[in-house]
Amino acid sequence: MSDIILNVQQLHKDYVGEVNYKALKGIDFQLKRNEFVSVMGPSGSGKTTFLNCISTIDRPTNGSITINQKNPYELNDEDLAKFRRSELGFVFQDFNLVHTLTVEENILLPLTLDAVNAKEMTSRLAEVVEFLGIEEIMKKRTFEISGGQKQRVAIARAVIHQPSLLLADEPTGNLDSKAANSVMTLFQSIHETFQTSLLMVTHDPYVASFAERVIFMQDGMLYNEIQRGDHKKQFYQEIVDTLTFLGGGYHEL
Length: 253
Ligand SMILES: Nc1ncnc2c1ncn2[C@@H]1O[C@H](COP(=O)(O)OP(=O)(O)O)[C@@H](O)[C@H]1O
Ligand SMILES: [Mg+2]
What we know:
Elements: E1 4-15, E2 21-32, E3 36-40, H1 47-54, E4 62-67, H2 77-87, E5 88-92, H3 103-113, H4 118-132, H5 147-159, E6 165-169, H6 177-194, E7 197-201, H7 205-208, E8 213-218, E9 221-227, H8 232-252
Parallel strand pairs: 3-7, 3-8, 5-6, 6-7
Antiparallel strand pairs: 1-2, 1-4, 8-9
Helix pairs in contact: 3-5, 5-6
The chain binds adenosine-5'-diphosphate (ADP) and magnesium ion (MG).
Magnesium ion binds next to helix 1.
């Protein structure tokens, strides 16, 4: 097994429309198996586009992406659907839950789509629900629970099929700081317990400091990266300093 879970080479993405826009201009990036990396950068720098190309929501204009040594863009539609469900988990800022379903039905959705048998579903559900501490809300509808609970449910749905790569775009963007902190603690324990590789976009330096490495994007390119040492507080300060530098440079352009 390769120790690289995600290999991105010379990734380019042009949005073609009335005005063409080069959103990604040649990104090289590798995520190690069981690594947790945060992606930061100014608004419009291409973070979401980067994640969407990896998750196959957006098709790259050029370059290559392999996840677990497979190139999702070389698969046919049916195999791609299977690949996404088995290898990838997604968590979004706005939770993306299905409002007509209960919490339990939302969490089971990926397994239902994969026609997993009932016994296996029940045991996986029990494990995830216990791990996330959401037993008491299983029969509720999504409008009956708080934002922090919604994100827990979305995370449960994203990890129930044990993806090798978990992708999150601003997962704490709609949460207050208390709920954000608890979601990040949860990500960290998922990462440690299940050896899930994690790539997460955030604009919040505190949230970013939960990762082992932070990469900074600017203007469709990778600008810098910093590795966490022994001290989270020092890591946080380095992130803030880099953002200050990047922010200044960005506005001067
Ligand atoms: N579907 C699209 N069509 C055209 N331009 C887009 C589209 N999606 C994003 N962009 C542009 O690409 C750039 C990068 O966007 P995005 O990846 O969303 O940045 P970020 O997530 O860092 O804020 C922005 O300038 C944005 O306006
Ligand atoms: Mg974005």
